[in-house]
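As a next step, the fold was encoded as C-alpha cells, giving this record:
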Amino acid sequence: MKRVEIYDTTLRDGTQGEGVSLTVDDKLTIAGKLDEVGVRYIEGGWPGSNPRDAAFFERARGLGLKNAVVTAFGSTMRPKSTPSKDANLKALLAAETPVVTIVAKTWDFTVREDLRISLKANLDLIEKTFRYLSRRRDKVILDAEHFFDGFLANREYALECLSVAAEAGASLLCLCDTRGGALPAQITEAVEAAAALGIEVGIHCHNDGGLAVANSLQAVEAGATHVQGTINGFGERCGNTDLCTVVPNLQLKMGRRCVTAAQLKKLGELSRLAYELANVEPDRQQPYVGRSAFAHKGGLHVSAVRKNRDTYEHVDSSLVGNEQRVLVSDLSGRSNVEYKAQQFGIDVDGRADELQSLLSELKELENVGFQFEGAEASFELLMHKNLRSNVRFFRLIGFRVIDEKRRDDEPTASEATVMIEGPDGRIEHTAATGNGPVNALDLALRKALSKFFPEIDDVHLHDYKVRVLSDHGETGSLVRVLIESGDSNGRWGTVGVSHNIVEASWQALVDSLVYKLYKTRGTAQS
C-alpha cells in the first residue's frame, strides 16, 4: 500500500477561520490528539507573529510526541534584508523545530502587486531563504502560494520558483490552491508538471469552490505524496481541506496508507475534540465523522440496513470512530421502531399490534410538534410506556410558577412550587427561586425528588432550546422545548411541546430526570 503523509495545519491555518479561537492549552491538547491519530507533521503556528504561538512552541518541546513532528511556519525573507538578519527567519529558528515550512509567492501577479518587486528579485528571496534554512534544519518545506493560479498565468515562472527552491535545499514542494478556485483537471496537470522536477510533491487546498477534498485526492492520483489540511476543515473564508474526510477517502477508498487502522478509529473523537475546544457547533452532516453520517430515518432505508448495512452505508462507521444510528419520526416505519426496541433491550417478538400502536402514536406526536431525533431519551421512555407497562416513579399533584417584577431597573424574580406523590405514597411539597421560571421549576422539582432519588443530583442540564412551531398564534404559538441533560456517564435529549413554554419545559425536564432513574433503577413501581 502506497503511503501518503499527513500534514495538519489546524493550529495555524485553522485558527484563521472566522469564529475559531484556541488557547495555548487548547493547541497543546489538540497536538497530543493529532499525534495519537498518527499525522506526520503538526504545524504549530507562525513564530514571532503573536505571543500565543511563541508560547506554544516553547511548551510543545515537552509534549513527548511519538508519531508527529512539530513544524514552524513562516515566509521568505523580506526584500532588502539578509537571511541572518531577517526577523522572520530568526523567529523560525528560535522555535527550535526540526522542520520549517516557508510560504513563497509563485504567481507573477502577486509578486508584482503584493510584494511590489521584480520576478527575478522574488526568485532571489526564495533561493537565499531556502539555502540558509536548509543548512540549519532537518527539513524545509516549500508552501508554493497561489501555485495553481500562477501555473495558469505563467507556467514557466511558477515552475521556476519550485526549481529554485529545490536546488536551494527544499525537501518537499507543497502546491497551494490559495484562493480555493482550482478545478480537478487543473490540479492534475500542475501536479504532474511539478513532480517532473524529481522532488516530493504535496498539496494544500482551500475550499472556496467546495472542491478542497476532491482536489487533494486528485493531486494524490497525479503523484502527490503529502497532503495538508485541517481537522473539520477549519480555515479562512470557506476553510481548508478537511482531514476528517480526506484521510478516510485516501485510506479506505484509494488504498493509500496515512495512519494505522487503530489510529483511524480515533478520527471521530479528534473531530469532536476540535469542535469543542474551538467552541464551534459540530457539522452533523460532515462526511465520515458527523453525527448524521450514518443515521437512517426513512423506513425503507432502515429495513434495508437491518438486513445488510452495505445497502446504504459506503463504509463501516466503526472504522472512523462513528456509529450507526436509526432515527424515529413521522417518516419511520416498523423497522425503525423494531431497531430502537432492540437497541433499548426490549423484546418485541410477537407484538406486532403493540408496535403498530406505538408507531401510530409516534406519528401523531410528531404531527403536533414533537421531534424525537434530538430527544431519543423521550422516545425510549415512550417505548417503555407502550411496550412494557405504564409505570411511573412519582405522580405530579401540581405545580405553580410565579414571576414578579416590581421596578424596571430590577431583575424579575421567579418562584416555583411543586407537589408530588413519591413511590411510597408520601407527599412532598417544595418551593425554590431561580433566575427564570424554568430554572425555578427545575430546582423545585429536584428538591422534591431528591428525597426519594438522591442520584438525580448527578444530572446536569447542558443545553436548552426553544422553537416556535407556528406563527399563526403569534405569542400564543405552539412551542417545542429540547433539553440536553447529562451525568458522569453520558448525555441524553428530551422534548416537550405545548402552547405554554413552562408546560413544554416541564415535560422535557420530567423526562430528563425520569430517564436517569430508568438508567439507574430500571423498571419503576406502578
